Amino acid sequence: MDIILQKISEYLQKGDEEKVFELTKQAIGHNFDTKEILDNGLIAGMNIIGEQFKKHEIFLPDVLMAAKAMYAGMDQLKPLLIKDGIQGMGKIVLGTVHGDLHDIGKNLVGIMLKGAGFEVIDLGRDVPAEKFVDTALNEQVKVIGLSALLTTTMSVMKEVISILKVKDTTNSIKTIVGGAPLSKDYAKEIGADAYAYDSANAVESVKELIGVN
Amino acid sequence: MKPFFERLHSGEILVSDGAMGTMLFQKGLRPGDCPESINLKNPEILKEIAQLYFNAGADIIQTNTFGGSPLKLSAYNLEDKNEEINTIAVNCVRKVVGTQAYVSGSCGPSGKILKPYGDTEPEDVYQSFKRQMKSLINAGVDIICVETMTDLHEATIAVKVSKEISSQITVIATMTFDETPRGFYTIMGVSIKDAAKRLEKVGANCIGSNCGHGIENMIKIAYEFKKYSSLPIIIQSNAGIPEMKGETLFYPETPEFFAEKTKELIDAGVSIIGGCCGTTPEHIRAIRKVVDSYKE
Q1: Does the pLDDT of residue B78 top 70, yes or no?
Q2: Which residue of A14, A53, A55, A56 to mutate against B (max B Cβ within 10 Å)?
Q3: Mean pLDDT, to the nearest integer, of B117-127?
Q4: The domain that contains A162 carries what CATH number?
Q5: Phi, psi (5° rounding) for residue A175?
Q6: Domain span at residue A43?
Q7: Which one, A26, A45, A204, B103, has least CB within 10 Å?
């Protein structure tokens, strides 16, 4: 009975936290495959939200409410995913660079990445360059995501990438940058592996970076 | 000098100033510093900037208090200094302009997302604006300018608070819109129609838009506001969408281009014309010239 998963997706899109919690609980009770609840319920719903937001069909409040609903389901699935040894999409370190206190864009990227099944380690805002790299190495993440809103803090991104190049001897960690003043050209100039122009694009770009779809 | 409210309603077109942040960085504000910390550390800079815009012909000069609410200052552990920060900013501008221009107290967003979407209580936002606006009004601003808003709930709170503190104070309220295939909306999903109607209802005296766009889109936004409100309209446009040139930010729209388009803003019926990010005293001078030529 896939109808319950479809319902999870639908109520998630409506931002109905309680219903998503309840339905996820039911799905678990009915012995649905954990991965299936995640992929065909929660992630499916967030994908649609991401698409609609990208097309300006919905706005930030809708995304935030959907995210709350997603977390209500995700919290129940997490222990099961760990127990079943199910690998997610991988880990990502995310943060706004040192000197920059703007985090709405970064938070949105975090929501979308979680919604796509990634494990997000959010370091918050005003994050020192070293901390990005050290966390990425310790946590064995695949990607570092850097955000900046100020034109004056964009250059800090370059610093993170330089430190990473020295410390990541196997060259296995990728970087993606984003934020209002950035451009594809600037990302290239500072040696970032990818640039994302918005939160939905960030998910696409990260998937591309690590070779999944 | 006539009271601002009278001038605004006389049909005269007024000129407001240009970017503050851009000027502060030119004058030595460091990346990551709180822009309002300048008010404590080096208030002379505030006078210099006010003087530049005043000399360029602005009728309205804004205070360096965009992020001067306790909620916003708390990010820098400066919330306890909010009264001082706001008072100094007003005093500096007043010292320069005397009664030759109007002092407008800038009040930007709290930077928080209100419940139910975020986790901030509307009451906290209310109290935060109240503390800031009390300082601004006590220090003698002519205008409270609620700007760069994207959440209509927050904008509404800000307008209401200012009127609660002083029913006499003139309140300008502007929001920042994105262009979507369905028209202009803020990122929080507020249409120009909803913004215009609601802001007028809660007591704003002048409404419009600042930031987010170059001047061409702002002309479209101005016409849209006119459709839904009989209040005077204010437009403060960016000098285009910034591009990176090497390590520096470049705003493509020149003072000449602004002059050209200012005519169209006047035709659209805009009452106050000024600049936002990337605009300079030269842009304001250009606007002034066009506005003056319309008077004759």
Answers
A1: yes
A2: A56
A3: 96
A4: 3.40.50.280
A5: -125, 145
A6: 3-83
A7: A26
Within chain B, where are the H helices? 4-9, 21-26, 37-41, 44-55, 70-73, 82-97, 122-138, 152-165, 192-201, 215-228, 255-267, 281-295
Binned at pLDDT 50, 70 and 90, residue A128 comes out as: very high
Residue B30: how many other CB atoms lie within 10 Å: 10
Residues of A in contact with B244 (CB under 8 A): 151, 154, 181-183, 185-186
Kindly list the residues from chain B whose CB atom is less than 8 angstroms away from the CB atom of residue A61. 117, 188-189
The DSSP 8-state label assigned to residue A39 in this structure reads I
Q: Which residues pair with A149 in a beta bridge?
A: none
Count of C-beta atoms within a 10 Å radius of residue B137: 18
In whole angstroms, what is the distance from residue A142 CA to residue A88 CA? 12
- B121: domain CATH number is 3.20.20.330
Residue A1: pLDDT over 60? no
Of residues B10, B83, B94, B21, the one with CA closest to residue B51:
B94
Segments forming the whole domain that contains residue B235? 4-295
d(CA B148, CA B155) in angstroms, rounded, equals 9
User: Among A49, A83, A117, where does a domain finish?
Assistant: A83
pLDDT digits (tens, 9 = 90+) for B262-279: 999 999 999 999 999 999
